[in-house]
Write a structure and sequence with these properties.
The protein contains five helices and five strands. It is α/β, with parallel strands linked by helices and 136 residues long. A five-stranded parallel β-sheet has the order 2-1-3-4-5, sandwiched between helices. Helix 2 runs parallel beside helix 3. The longest helix has 17 residues. The chain has one domain: Response regulator (Rossmann fold, 3-Layer(aba) Sandwich). Helices cover 44% and strands 17% of the residues.
Length: 136
């Protein structure tokens, strides 16, 4: 059970098995989680209750992850939230687009647990010290 003071990580992922894996990994690492399976619901949920950080898939129904990221960055209430784009898309243009839209970090699937948890920890440090962190 996460500490009540632990940060909340929001996960936007449409693939149920990957979503379950991410939620489990985050909770085992001591984080609280909330999640949605489509981009529009994710955007609404993030605006209602801004998390400490977001993990955002690109390929989602209703709004893709790039559209969600663009809208998060355009809203002063959510512009500061660190976002890890976690996607199967590996093309240089996709990485460039994510960074140009304001992604804090980018990680391609498949990923390993240690790498994911290290990047989430970086997101949370980024939020604390407000420095840009981008690792590909």
């Amino acid at each position: 059970m996460p500490d009540p003071r632990a940060p909340r990580i929001f996960i936007a992922e449409d693939d149920e098995s990957i979503l379950e894996l991410l939620v489990t990994r985050m909770r085992l690492a001591g984080y609280h989680t909330s999640q949605e399976r489509d981009g529009l619901s994710a955007l609404d949920a993030i605006k209602r209750a801004p998390p400490a950080a977001c993990i955002l898939d690109v390929n989602m129904p209703r709004l893709d992850g790039f559209q969600v990221l663009k809208r998060l960055r355009a809203d002063p209430r959510t512009a500061h939230i660190p976002v890890l784009v976690l996607t199967a898309r590996r093309a240089p243009d996709d990485i460039k687009t994510a960074i140009q839209l304001g992604a804090t970090d980018y990680l391609s699937k498949p990923f390993n647990d240690e790498q994911l948890l290290a990047r989430v920890a970086r997101l949370l440090r980024k939020r604390q010290d407000n420095t840009k962190v981008v690792y590909v």
